Amino acid sequence: MQKKKHSIKAIAKELNISVTTVSFVLNGKAEENRISQKLIDKVQAYVKKIGYQPSQLAKSLRTGKSNIIVFMVEDISNPFFATIAKMIEDRAFKDGYKIIYSSTNNDPVKTMGLISMFRDLQVDGYILTPPVGMDAGFLTELSKDRNPLILFDRYLPEVDCSYVVIDNFQGAKQGLDLFLANGLRKIGFVTIDSDQSQMHDRREAYIQMCEKEGIEEQILEIPYDTYSSQETENAMTAYFESNGDLEAVFFATNYLAMKGMQVIKQVGKKIPNDLAVIAFDDNEFFKFNTPSVSSIVQPKEEIAQGLIQSMLQSISTPQGERESNKIVLHASLKERESTNKSKK
Questions:
Q1: Positive or negative CA dihedral for 149, 155, 158, 162?
Q2: pTM of the model
Q3: Beta partners for 296?
């Protein structure tokens, strides 16, 4: 049997009061509109009795507030993004907010379409990792909307809005400095072919190290949309075979490192005896791998805290009084077995 649907109008008729009165009680505005406690209790008791649940969409259309925050990243299944999403969800729930997750697949067209849909749903704010090729003008316009935008993991220099990122240059430099401290000079760098801020800064740390130390650059760039393909494996195989004198390699992402370590084994090299390895962004797999993998660790709890605190503060601040909150956090180096190689 289909469950009977209730409406504010039907509730008002049953209780012989106005629709406006019921609406004020259900939206927590009864006291400010001088509705008696007796009438508030009457409405609330009846609503509980019939199991009435107001439409979230209808409520957001009436009030302009949905208590929903959108969390849009390139791939929500990525452990880094998934961990931060869970932390944000827990904190947001305590403050009365819910999180909608969405993967952009690093596609700017898909991203803009999703944002347009969420705008229609009256969401209260957007946390976004902007994809490659994202229109800066679109983000600038969105940042001026009444519902705040916070960029995450990367930013666009030409867009003046709040963001939470890490110092990717500093993080990469820590790993490269460890190679140098161990007397290693022939250092390779494997990265994604992308000019996004986080990838640019990691690569820049390597380039500056090479310039300062007089080391020849050995960079392999993998197209973003092929990093898990056979094409990537072939490119890595050719890279390690043609640079057989490499002593160390820095992988700019953890997924490149996982693929790269497979290839290193396939070409007959051993880690760390033949080749020391560091990956940017830690992964649970790295702790249990043989050998365990040294990595640059991003401060996930601090990132999540910075994101949700900035968002809640922006939501509660009148639009005309908001200021961009730009948070830059530091990464740390976790040394494991893959860097236990010194110059002989």
A1: positive
A2: 0.80
A3: 280, 333
**Yes or no: domain 8-54 corresponds to CATH 3.30.360.10:** no
Query: What per-residue confidence (pLDDT) applies to 238?
Result: 97
Quick one: angle between helices 230-242 and 254-266, nearest 10?
60
State how far the Cα of 211 lies from the Cα of 213, in Å rounded to an integer. 6
pLDDT along the chain (344 residues), means of 10: 65 86 80 86 86 61 72 92 94 92 93 91 92 92 91 93 96 98 97 92 98 97 79 95 96 95 96 97 93 97 96 91 94 97 62
Burial of 213 from C-beta contacts in 10 A (0-12 / 13-18 / 19+): exposed
Sole residue written with tokens 């259309």:
61
Domain range list for the chain:
8-54, 64-167+301-331, 168-297+333-339
CB atoms within 10 A of CB 268: 9
Indicate the residue type of 126.
Y
- CB 215, CB 185: distance < 8 Å: yes
Report the CATH number of the 64-167+301-331 domain: 3.40.50.2300
How is residue 320 written in tokens?
């005309």
Q: Tell me whether the CATH fold assigned to 8-54 matches the one assigned to 64-167+301-331.
A: no
Q: How far apart are CA 126 and CA 68, in angstroms?
A: 9
